[in-house]
UniProtKB/TrEMBL annotation:
Keyword Cytoplasm: yes
Descriptive protein name: tRNA (cytidine/uridine-2'-O-)-methyltransferase TrmJ
Subunit structure: Homodimer.
Pfam families referenced in this protein's UniProt entry, alphabetically: SpoU_methylase
Underlying gene: trmJ
Amino acid sequence: MSGTDLARLALSDGEGEPGPIVVLVQPQLAENVGSAARAMLNCGLSRLRLVAPRESRLSERAIAAASGADVVLERAEVFATLEEAIADCHRVYATSARPREMVKRVVTPRLGAAELRQASAAGERVALLFGPERTGLVNDDISLADTILSVPLNPGFSSLNLAQAVLLVCHEWFQAGDQTPAEEISYHGNRPATRGELINFFSRLEIGLEEGGFFQSPDMRPHMMRAIRNAFDRAGLTEQEIRTLHGVIYALRKAPPTPGRPRKGDREGAGDGVSGS
């Protein structure tokens, strides 16, 4: 998916609590480092540390894979050992896809993200560890972390490449602080219809239905109109859509009337003949 707006290139590292430091231990391929940087910036993170990388983080292949996240690669720090890379961190979570023969707390990315946000807000420097592409973190690396972070996946096939793992974990961090509503309607410059506009539309619709012989029984008319009003209410109509429906009613009422049923004012109500998209 494409969605880059350089004018809105915001990094969480300078806004509110700082985001976690992403530490890649002995990454093998420059493309994976670049893709991981891209995943980080997708989630508003930019603090990247590399432990004994095999290739330069600023190689052409790394920059190409970053797809515009060059700022992450340019700011990245390189260390000879993991101990040096996390020496200034207060809390460290190590990612792992397999059980370890050690007593260590294991959490999901969702819980881990919430805990890291709380720690970060309290002024602690937090880090996320990711291991080499081929082997992942070794036990000696895991032993330096406070907690193991494990992504719930298909137990029969839970293998992730480096950038996928970084994106999954960093996205949980992002979501833990994101205020985007779960659902919203985009009106594209329009506005929701007012109650008065809806009532006017319902009145004209009822007249048109009566003229067309829709109400076979007078006793059923109130019930049927309530059902129709509820159906339109659930649609969440906009002002433009109401005007379009007025045009629909007007066009239908121009048809020959049902014998014995005179029309009740062809031009009643606002918006006759108005159409829209």
